[in-house]
Specification:
By secondary structure, the chain is α+β, with helices and mostly antiparallel strands. It contains 14 helices and 16 strands. Strands 11, 12, 13, 14, 15 and 16 form a six-stranded antiparallel β-sheet that branches. Strands 4-3-5-6 form a four-stranded parallel β-sheet, covered by helices on one side. It starts with a helix and ends with a helix. Mean pLDDT is 88; it is low at 1-16.
């Protein structure tokens, strides 16, 4: 008891509550994850660990590594288990989870991917689902994806459109990320047809800040597809190109001008990094809120811009709702086994119309700047809290069932 009091005194947290007691009888402990544990070296914040001490909470990573998530989980008393172990509370996978793994989940276990969530993260599937909704609901409501073709399947249709609407196009592999394999196309002969790709009409009139292109990385958490529950994180990232935009055909090969991906622009000699977490509008990566403040000061209606972005996000997820919900009914033994974090990349044209560039399956949680740490520690804390991780051993089914029965009385 004395030791616990001393630990609480030495802890620098402002609040020590890390559990919600849920259920009608308020006897089911659900963890409230706190981002401040990511700010302490060696996880020296002790109050969070006390709430889960002795419970036996575990996590595992599969085909991925995430230092920030590891620090957050261990700061709340979790211990890592081997990636082949079935004894875990939270499983964080860098790829889609196999059906046999999903079928074996207990009610207390959480996995960070839904079955068939690739319906919006693969560029070809995103386009197919979008077009299905566009044909069903009308072009007026689904007009946020540039004209797109899946090649080589729709090669003839693309040629016909190109003949009518000459201009720049952008070719992307259907299942890549971080700007890999992207090319700006001035003529169909420049497209490599040996691999499947999508080719989209290039947004040639982007909204600029001081002459530079930018896009928004918006984080979206889905905790259920049946019923559908979507949470849009209130902070994100604005990512800038490192060369001022020029629509001249002579600059087609300059990826530092045309692409806003951080993984590409950080290699540019013109990349500017900010080392102060309190300065959010300097360098080539800003916070989304800082960008919106800047645009508002410039006279833009940022409230309307973000309403359109939210509308875009919701409609995109709805386009995949039926196939993902059906897969959940088929493979998941419990409705709330899965949650998912998506990274929506959105660009505005000069008329402030938002366009969806892509949806990322596993958006990067790497922290290469103080601003990254500030935003992403809050992001994953809220995401895990929303997912409803129960602070019980994942195989204490008897204890959890008895608590359920007590609530039902």
């Amino acid at each position: 008891m004395v030791a616990e009091q001393e630990n609480k005194k030495s802890c620098r947290c402002e609040h020590t509550t890390t559990l919600f007691w849920c259920g009608p009888g308020r006897n089911i402990p659900v963890l409230h994850f706190r981002p401040d544990v990511c700010l302490f070296k060696n996880n020296d914040c002790t109050c969070n660990k006390m709430a889960s001490r002795g419970v036996g909470l575990t996590y595992k990573f599969v085909k991925t590594e995430c230092r920030l998530l590891r620090q957050l989980l261990e700061g709340h008393g979790f211990k890592e288990t081997h990636q082949t172990s079935n004894d875990f509370n939270v499983m964080w996978s860098g790829c889609h989870v196999k059906p046999y793994t999903l079928r074996g989940l207990t009610e207390l276990q959480k996995v960070n991917h839904f079955p068939r969530s690739y319906e919006i993260t693969r560029k070809d599937r995103l386009y197919k689902n979008y077009m299905r909704m566009r044909q069903s609901m009308g072009a007026k409501h689904f007009d946020f994806l540039p004209v797109t073709y899946v090649l080589p399947t729709e090669l003839n249709e693309y040629y016909s459109t190109y003949q009518r609407e000459r201009g720049l196009w952008i070719a992307k592999p259907v299942a890549s990320s971080r700007g890999r394999g992207i090319n700006i196309i001035g003529h169909p002969n420049q497209i490599n047809l040996e691999e499947q790709c999508v080719v989209c009409k290039y947004i040639s009139n982007p909204l600029l800040v001081d002459g530079f292109k930018f896009d928004l990385r918006i984080y979206v958490c889905v905790t259920s597809f049946d019923p559908l529950r979507i949470y849009i994180f209130n902070e994100g990232l604005a990512r800038f190109s490192t060369v001022r935009y020029d629509s001249s055909p002579l600059n087609l090969d300059n990826m530092f001008m045309h692409l806003t991906n951080y993984s590409i622009n950080k290699k540019s000699a013109g990349y500017v990094k900010c080392s102060d977490p309190d300065i959010e509008d300097y360098g080539n990566k800003w916070s989304m809120s800082a960008l919106l403040r800047y645009l508002k000061n410039e006279g833009f209606d940022t409230a309307m811009m973000m309403m359109r972005v939210e509308d875009l996000i919701i409609k995109t997820i709805i386009s995949a709702e039926i196939p993902v919900a059906n897969a959940c009914r088929m493979f998941l033994p419990h409705r709330e086994n899965c949650f998912e974090l998506f990274g929506f990349d959105v660009i505005f044209d000069e008329n402030c119309k938002p366009w969806l560039l892509e949806v990322n399956l596993s958006p990067s949680l790497a922290c290469e700047s103080p601003l990254d740490l500030k935003i992403k520690s809050n992001l994953i804390s809220q995401m895990l809290t929303l997912s409803g991780v129960v602070a019980l051993d994942p195989y204490s089914k008897r204890d959890f069932t008895s608590r359920r029965k007590t609530n039902a009385k």
